[in-house]
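Q: Joint fold for the lines below.
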Amino acid sequence: MPETMSQAAQPLPHVTHQRAVFADGLMLDCGAVVAPLAVAWRGYGRLNADATNAILVCHALTGDQYVAETHPLTGKPGWWDNVVGPGKPIDTDRFYVVCVNVLGGCMGSSGPPEPMTDAEGRTLGRPWGTDFPSVTIRDMVRAQHRLMEHLRIARWLAVLGGSMGGMQVLEWAATYPEAVFAAAPIACASHHSAQNIAFHEVGRAAIHGDPEWRGGRYWEHGTVPAKGLSVARMVAHITYLSEQALSRKFGRRLRGAAALTFLEDVFEVESYLRHQGSTFIRRFDANSYLTITRAMDFFDLAAEHGGVLAEAFRGTTTRFFVASFSSDWLFPTAESRLLVRALNAAAANVSFVEIASDKGHDAFLLDEPDFHNALGGFLRGAAERLGV
Amino acid sequence: MPETMSQAAQPLPHVTHQRAVFADGLMLDCGAVVAPLAVAWRGYGRLNADATNAILVCHALTGDQYVAETHPLTGKPGWWDNVVGPGKPIDTDRFYVVCVNVLGGCMGSSGPPEPMTDAEGRTLGRPWGTDFPSVTIRDMVRAQHRLMEHLRIARWLAVLGGSMGGMQVLEWAATYPEAVFAAAPIACASHHSAQNIAFHEVGRAAIHGDPEWRGGRYWEHGTVPAKGLSVARMVAHITYLSEQALSRKFGRRLRGAAALTFLEDVFEVESYLRHQGSTFIRRFDANSYLTITRAMDFFDLAAEHGGVLAEAFRGTTTRFFVASFSSDWLFPTAESRLLVRALNAAAANVSFVEIASDKGHDAFLLDEPDFHNALGGFLRGAAERLGV
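A: Joint structure:
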């Protein structure tokens, strides 16, 4: 492995995140109670007087609440800096944008790296680690709902997000329909497929197989399962890109001399992937990765509604905007179409667009003008309807 | 990891393989000489008096020479037992079928687990390990050509194989055109794509990251990098299947209780993948896996011919049968079409079929009657042409 790997195989630095703490905690789908419940979040723009201009952005597996500002660990721009901001498609001159670190995450919300508490909420002097209970997408949404009440927002103008963020959008629309005026599930599906579960399981096997994982108690040893987490990131990263995107970016270009060699990083694509792995471990917690991937795997909205997806949206008045990307093979367009058919069966107000892009799943994060125009138009239409 | 993993984390048992040994060795593309050169092989059927009925079957990345008989390590049927045998599509009542363990493999041919030798061919008392030189697909084919001379076969009636086996077929047709009457490259491509390289690199990173790999010298410690090799197999295995095949086989079925849990193997697809990983380590060597995946990554037939694929086949008289499978996303039909276009540009005799199958890349190994009929017909046609 590159030298940077061992240098980085250290616990994440401590960062103080803005958060709301709810002493009474949250009961999860698995029956466990997390108390107190910490919800780390960020807001962009200004909430108007009647609190009608609030948009909730839900982040993906490895995203966080730092949507449109410098990231406190990486020093890089926010993950949706090209979409959220003054004059941008999600215009913070007009809207108040909220983003919450998901339950089970590692950026300040209750999750594996946070101090463990007992049933009475007393700190036990060590992190939760793998004792953090199993979390579902619905649990994540319930935690966000607690913050919503705390912020005295009665209804989101819109809830939107891509990938796992889109799963949260669907769960919001199904669980709190009255609280969601408009919903934009992007590059997602109503359930995680067998292939998606399989790729996640490879990542988990890599983490479990790293002796530095130490049965999940790596924090006792001042180390982290850097190599396992890096491999998990590498395989996931491939699924975020299309073959076309990889070919265009790297093709079969060799690094340096073209000599036949056993050396690592012979091809540029390998060097790129290893870089993705080694930077990821500096900002993400391995036990959070296990927790959140499992939450995605469990997601099956139809199963929560008697096996009929349309039942999740029965009687909804939420207006939906569903978007997929043509080269996304992790959440292919066919799965968005299934979702649209269910919304149609529930007589929902839904528009659907498949964006032509060769950038794969990651397209929802990248410069895709057609997508940005469509999303911006959807939000403006919703705002005008509400007179915001 | 399952308990079976640690039980199996032992060196591969010793098996005596049938092989030919060439004292003068083989010079490889990288400039190194492997001497002596050991070529482990198996034959099925009977070579006729004028040696015109010989068919060479080339195996894939994790295959071996045990095509149509019980495997000496796993006790399972040969990997193409459904295709090769008396009365089967590759009919051993009529043809003499030869299969060679590839150079760099771990079933008796020269490769990382075999005893290392010095420039004079003297055994150095330890395995090659990662000191085994880098191997190319062309090197593998050259080693097979040595065996061909040894067997006094002047021309193969046909050379055929799927996946990496198909790469060898193409290399045979390009390097020894006069020795190949008919060629069937199946479910393959003329080069390894950036995405394919990326998936291989994940597997290599998992092996390199396993401390039991010990810089490639695990044989000194009586252990093997079982967890890393298992993860490598898991991710590769996903690429061999289609999403449809995974969904049909497993869908989102849970194992046992459906409780939300951190336990491993919650979904059947996970259990299946882990099983694939843990059985693989009992029959394959990690350093061979590194060597052979690298050989596939290096494969770029056009690059060997001035960047023009058609040049590889200029003036060929070989008759080609190219087959792809509609749901194969590792070697998609588009790559077979590129190959067919190059063969057309070289005015080659070529037929092409895309088999409708939802089984993914692995379809070439499975029961696909349309494929078996087409392959059998191609071979019979070639045999009739030669009067065999």
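Q: Anything notable?
A: DSSP finds ten helices and 14 strands in chain A. Chain A touches chain B through 58 residues (CB under 8 Å).
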